[in-house]
Design a protein that fits this description.
Layout: E1 11-20, H1 26-37, E2 40-45, E3 51-57, H2 59-71, E4 77-85, E5 95-97
Parallel strand pairs: 2-5
Antiparallel strand pairs: 1-3, 1-4, 2-3
Helix pairs in contact: 1-2
Amino acid sequence: MQRLRANQRMETYRVRVTGKVQGVGYRHATVRQAHELKVTGWVMNLDDGSVEAVIQGDPDQVDRMLQWMRMGPPAARVAELETAECATTRRYPHFERR
C-alpha cells in the first residue's frame, strides 16, 4: 500500500451512510475499494442500521472514495451520505473493517 509522504496534503473525513447498507456486503466492499484507492481508516456498522467510516488520503483519493460510497456495492441502496472533515494529526496505517 502506498503511504503518504510527510509533506503530502492529506484529508480525513468521518462518514455516515444510511439506507440499505447492512447485510448487503457494504463494509466488505468498502474495504476492497479503500485498498484499491489506497485510502486508510476504518468502517463499521452502527446499531441504528447505518454504516460509519473514517477515510483518510490525499484529496483526489478521498473524493473518489466518497463518490464510490454514495453508490456502494450492487445490493446496497444508499439513502444519504453525511460527511464531516476532521482536523486530526492521527495517521491511519491501513483501512480496516471494525
